[in-house]
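FORM 7B: Structural annotation worksheet

SECTION A. Query
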Amino acid sequence: MTEMVMVTADLDEPVAAVRHIRSDFRQDVYDHVPGTVLRGALAAAWIQRHGAPSPDDPEFAAIFEGDGSFGPLHHRNGTSLPTPLSVKTHKYRPGERCKQLWWDRATAEDAATCPECHGALDASKGAPVGRVEQHRRTRAALDEQGVAKDGHLFSQNTLPAGMRLTGWVYGPAARAFAHDTETLFLGARRSVGGQARVTIDREAEPDPVELDGSTIVLRLASPGIFVDAFGLPSEVPDIEELSEQLGVPVESIEQRWTRWTESGGWHAASGLPKPTERAVLPGSTYRVRCAEPASEPARRRLMARGIGLRRREGYGALCRPGAPHSIEAITGTLAPLRGWRLLPSELPILRERAKALHRGNQVDSRYAKAMLDDTVRPEIARALRVLLAIRDVDRYMDAISFLERAQ
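SECTION B. Predicted structure
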């Protein structure tokens, strides 16, 4: 059985995975940890344990240069995942009575305007599903006397300490972990940040890629690099690769929603830039018609493995983001909580929970008993379950405000 492990990273220090430096002395950083950053951190830990590998070391080559996949680490609640390009959203802020926030053309949903507010809808450009917490730090380079150098002031955003991120590592790459819990240093400026406690779960299984009859829906969580039969950049994944991984013949790519981008990077070990590739944007979506339905285990493996080239550097990772909650659509379900006798004392705790939700490290064991206790009315338990399932902080606070208005 092919090995795949779920990776959970708890940030002990701020982390900055630098995208590029702008002309205004600000560093753009990713709102997640790209797979190439995870791979580099694991390679550094491996070298620290075993020493520098020889050029013909088969184990090092199999793990870090082989056919495995180091997927990106995204916010535990999925808020840093890209909105699929097949989705239409409100061009402007949704109205208070809007019940639907996504229209996904990959699942045969389409509209020109919202039926509630009549506002225009716009195709997604791949923006994050939700709001991701980042902190800004401003630094200055110092000269030999400890004085700030002219023109050496710059600002950098970071993912804050306390945030929890998750992702998948697949195939031989999973052997990069010496222990089920390790301390790694992620991103840039590791002398002053980047420390994370990384835990792996060897028993976890990823969600399967979506199935619609005999058609599957693939959505990219990171840039995808594909080539055609002549080695030229392509917008679509290779049908033969998909057939091999799914175990059923793939007939065609029925529909696609893609945008081109360029992807490069920096190889820290050699101090050299990586080649810049033509790639398709995260959020790109494909409807793939198969001759027969693919099995669930095959669809789970494909989710962890990803598609396309340079998967060991985090490219071609797949995801299955959920549509954001519309508070108007679930107020009926939440309404019974307004009559819950414990609500007045629990509201301050539920409001404070938003801070943990923002960082993806919320722990809801406090309410597990209430949701399972037979003495609690079923509608209360169901309302709690729906409230705690909201992952986007803004939508969650809308729900708390709805409950507070009854007090």
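SECTION C. Observations
The chain is about 25% helix and 25% strand. Residues 11 and 196 are 4 Å apart (CA to CA).

SECTION D. Sign-off
Analyst initials: ____
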